[in-house]
Structures are given as C-alpha cells and as structure tokens.
What does this fold into?
Amino acid sequence: MSDNPAVRQFAQMAASDSLTGKTIGLFTPEAGNEANRAAFEEAYGVQLPGTAAATRRMLRSIAAQQQAAQNQETRAADSSSDRALARQDLSGADAPAPLERGSHWHVGQL
It folds into this structure.
C-alpha cells in the first residue's frame, strides 16, 4: 500500500465499510489534494476524475468493490472451514469409543 496517510485512511475506511465525505474530500480535485490524488492513482492504478462529484462516485464504487471482494473472501474462508469440520465429523475423530460387550455402564452413570 501507499505511504500516503490519505490513501491508507481510504483503504481502512473502505475495508470497514465506513467511507465518509471527509475521507473522500481528501481526493477531490481541489488545491492541496494533488499529492493525495497522485498517491491514490499510483496505489490503485486508476486516474481520478476531474470533478468532485465524479471523484466521489468513483471512490464509493472502488470502496464497494473492495468490500464485496472482502466479503467473498470471508465467505470462501468460512466455507473452507465448514468443509474441514464436516470432514473431521465424518472421520469420527471425536466419536466416543464403542462400549465393550458386557460392559456394566448404564445410561446416566458417569
């Protein structure tokens, strides 16, 4: 990622699905935002639009795409974990040992 604090802030806000107007304002085409815009363009490989409204739309779109990708990764990881647990259940790894024939153990007895 970038060393630019505004780009890092965008990445954090996008990942947590909490992008704000204040963060977006760091990248609008206004005086003082040139370094932030250049760093963003370098980090994300896209050129930001020349108007504030178009920049807002693009940043919100990028944040939504990142959030969707993150959600998909989370679902894939959860699914993989579920399959691993199912395999473990099927293998009987945690199954109790069978009782020996003639055992004196009774229900309710510990």
About this structure: The chain has four helices and no strands. The mean pLDDT is 83.
